[in-house]
Amino acid sequence: xxxxxxxxxxxxxxxxxxxxxxxxxxxRLCAAVSLDKKAENVLILDVSELTSFTDYFVxxxxxxxxxxxxxxKQVLTELKGNGRAPIGSEGFEEGxxxxxxxxxxxxxxxxxxxxxxxDLEGFWTDAKNMPLKEETAPKSAPLxx
Length: 145
Fold this sequence. Notes:
Blueprint: H1 23-36, E1 40-46, E2 56-62, H2 65-81, E3 88-90, E4 97-101, E5 105-111, H3 112-118, H4 120-123, E6 128-130
Parallel strand pairs: 2-5
Antiparallel strand pairs: 1-2, 1-6, 3-4, 4-5
């Protein structure tokens, strides 16, 4: 038993705060989760210069309603796990299209026919298509003597 003077002291360790994801990191997280769940034709559109309601769209498709639901639910779970609780979501029940709105990122998952019907890529043709992963700086070529 510890005496009054021998009480353990609080640890000097600081609790680390989880990193807050910015918009592009959030978009890439959505894309990565989608790919892990076998989404097809995943893309990230930078619409920050074209609209004021969001900065990025993440768009993907799946061959079935059940897969659309599974992809969207996993994206929702991963966002919450990374401190990005969405401000809204819809379409989960029907499954032909699901949307998760994080404010600066809006994630869309469609069955193939609905993606063609809504044609977000066609509507936002002026948007910049972003790489799904962070680009790394090109390695310099070795010097030849």
